[in-house]
Amino acid sequence: MAMPFEARYRVYWHHTDGAGIAHFSRILAIVEQAEEDFYASKGLLHVHGRLPRREVYASFLYPLRRGDEVLVRIWADEVRRRAVRYRFEILNLTAGRKAAEGHVVAVCVDSEGGELKAVECPQEFVEAWKEA
Amino acid sequence: MAMPFEARYRVYWHHTDGAGIAHFSRILAIVEQAEEDFYASKGLLHVHGRLPRREVYASFLYPLRRGDEVLVRIWADEVRRRAVRYRFEILNLTAGRKAAEGHVVAVCVDSEGGELKAVECPQEFVEAWKEA
Amino acid sequence: MAMPFEARYRVYWHHTDGAGIAHFSRILAIVEQAEEDFYASKGLLHVHGRLPRREVYASFLYPLRRGDEVLVRIWADEVRRRAVRYRFEILNLTAGRKAAEGHVVAVCVDSEGGELKAVECPQEFVEAWKEA
Amino acid sequence: MAMPFEARYRVYWHHTDGAGIAHFSRILAIVEQAEEDFYASKGLLHVHGRLPRREVYASFLYPLRRGDEVLVRIWADEVRRRAVRYRFEILNLTAGRKAAEGHVVAVCVDSEGGELKAVECPQEFVEAWKEA
């Protein structure tokens, strides 16, 4: 039975915008941190540089403020040969509220002459996601 | 008949990541720039600070590289009393390709005691979007 | 005898630029994270939002790459009534090299009518820095 | 007689932090935009990706707020065979105040086996800076 990968982060000042809450674009960067920490935990961090996002969706439910502790949870939604679709949720542990949820589709690519070309993902990458 | 709002930007080095292409989170920040320039063109820039994103969706179709000229086009998809849903597309003018498309739902809020509370959007804001 | 405050961070993909190394502006944001974690350790995180930088200097000695573990060390250089000047160094623990060093001058301010006005720093803030 | 290169930018929401002013790290990214636009104006944009910063100094004099128009002015301070030191100033045109000033040392490098090695800068790069 697959288990979501979880990682904890703190919200810093440089994440906030003029409304005093974390800017949505930086919340999405935090989701990516969790994805990287998942790969790092599997010895697959090198794969991440060839994984451009094909699709990103996020629903923001509750603000993150500077100093808040967050838990990011990610798990595979669909693992294909050339792409993975994973879901995420962000819990604002400080406020005790779900802050955001959504999904990401990342594609395995090779760059040939500057063009990004979808290729088959490494087998260990596919296996790692199937367990998450 | 409504017309999309258009704005042009250049992709800079600080937008890129280790793959040599603009990071998805910074592409989304460029979409927000177009939204702000739309408000600025209507004298409504002050409203933007009370418009947290409720939902963001993006599909990335073609990379943006440093130096590329981009055209961002935004137009209202659904204008409600307390929120607007707008669609965007990003054209990579340098490559002659559509780079991304998606939508954003932004909610009009007031902050009371730190909580964000959805409120009715200013009338001129609603009008501006109905024309876009 | 004062002791530097130390905090550890990981370099993530969104820190990198097209050269595959952390962008200087994001390295400086990591220094600020250490400053915030120092305040948090002293119960003074709320002060940080009224501490605009007056001066920042950094010398970059060795690159930070995605996945690298870094140690940021900060210590007071000069503690004045209305400002603190602290020094920092960043060690790339993964490479075993000093990555950067420099200093920051941050000023205690109050905002009146939108203008930032230098004011005396809170006493506990001054004390905390004198110990670091 | 050399002339500073000038470029104009607007401050956007994603530049601001919780204090409602542009975050210092993003102000520095705007300085880099001016450097890139200078290279672009000389047909030298490709050089920029091999120009890591060796040193950055900034003094912040007046805040930049969302919507402010800024003028960035850069000019060579010292042009060496393997590095350039340029000075910058940022004028907040909206407020009619100087917002920041400082300098940047950028080094021409080649990457060999992942190490950055200082090399001689391209001749046209040296010439371009000597005129700025």
UniProtKB/TrEMBL annotation, chains A, B, C, D:
This enzyme's EC code(s): 3.1.2.-
Keyword Transmembrane annotated: no
Keywords noted in UniProt: Hydrolase
Family named by the database record: Belongs to the 4-hydroxybenzoyl-CoA thioesterase family.
Alphabetized Gene3D superfamilies for the sequence: Hotdog Thioesterase (3.10.129.10)
Organism listed in the record: Pyrobaculum oguniense (strain DSM 13380 / JCM 10595 / TE7)
Protein name according to UniProt: Thioesterase
Enzyme class: hydrolase
GO molecular function: fatty acyl-CoA hydrolase activity
Record-linked Pfam families: 4HBT_2 (PF13279)
